[in-house]
Design a protein that fits this description.
CATH architecture of the largest domain: 3-Layer(aba) Sandwich
GO molecular function: NAD+ binding; oxidoreductase activity, acting on the CH-OH group of donors, NAD or NADP as acceptor
Number of domains: 2
Number of strands: 8
Structural class: alpha/beta
Largest sheet: 8 strands, mixed
Shape: globular
Distance between the termini: 41 Å
Family: Belongs to the 3-hydroxyacyl-CoA dehydrogenase family.
InterPro entries: 3-OHacyl-CoA_DH, 3-OHacyl-CoA_DH_NAD-bd, 3HC_DH_C, 6-PGluconate_DH-like_C_sf, 6PGD_dom2, NAD(P)-bd_dom_sf
Radius of gyration: 18 Å
Helix content: 40-55%
CATH topology of the largest domain: Rossmann fold
Pfam family, one: 3HCDH
Pathway: Lipid metabolism; butanoate metabolism
CATH class of the largest domain: Alpha Beta
Strand order of the largest sheet: 3-2-1-4-5-6-7-8
Length: 284
Amino acid sequence: MDEQLIAIVGAGVMGTGISTLVVGAGLPVVLVDVDQGVLERATTAIANGLRHAQLTGALPPGRTPGELRTTLSLSDVAAADVVIEAVTELPDQKAQVLSAVSALVRPATPLISNTSGIPIDEMAAWVKNPDDLIGTHFMNPAYLISMVEVIRGPQTADRTVESVLSLLTRIGRRAVVVHDAPGFVTSRLLHPMINDAAQVVRAGTATVEDVDTLMQGCLGHPTGPLRTADLIGIDNLVDALEALYARTGDERCRPSELLLEKVRRGELGRKSGRGFYNYSEAQS
């Protein structure tokens, strides 16, 4: 296990967080993206995340971080023992990446899609060996949140499940394995709730702060749904809601106008400095 090379495709918020977790656990990572600037920002974010995780005791003490290598070449995943796809929650993009990766890796290499809602069985049509494909839903920030949702598709092999559970144990994560369905468990429950919270704010029933305060104080939500939206990335949330709506027809999954307005204005949450809350002063 100590020699396992983990390839992570996509250096956005989730790919960066997962890379921080895996490197912090002592495993080598090759991080792939199509944009050199994105890779450079990810490298800085991973270094900062490692320091944060160490200060908060989220990583095992005394463990030497694994090597991080970044690359623009997808072919560098060919040598990996496990590949984690962490690109945007858009079916066309995921299909393109998963198809290319599955043609490059060795047979029986676990191919993990970090997805928030697209069914694994739908993705199985995009890969060469569907029995190697499995889903995970890491929460953001992945290096701080200890639970991971694991989604077994109808064609996922036992060996793939066992390999992924072993990896998650190695990097200090607890896993719950669920069956395949649009949104699985966490997104199917959380994303419509966030959408409802945005509807409440747009209707003028309560302010953003009051919604989050009530959900924290009365219902025990750790951060409140709208702070959670900022952490997820409002654009990512909209993509996930649209994927859910297309597959379920549930009106609660149709993105609210307030979420769409924020995406149009570039108010995407923490990563852009402003979402439902303003983070620019804290970052300056």
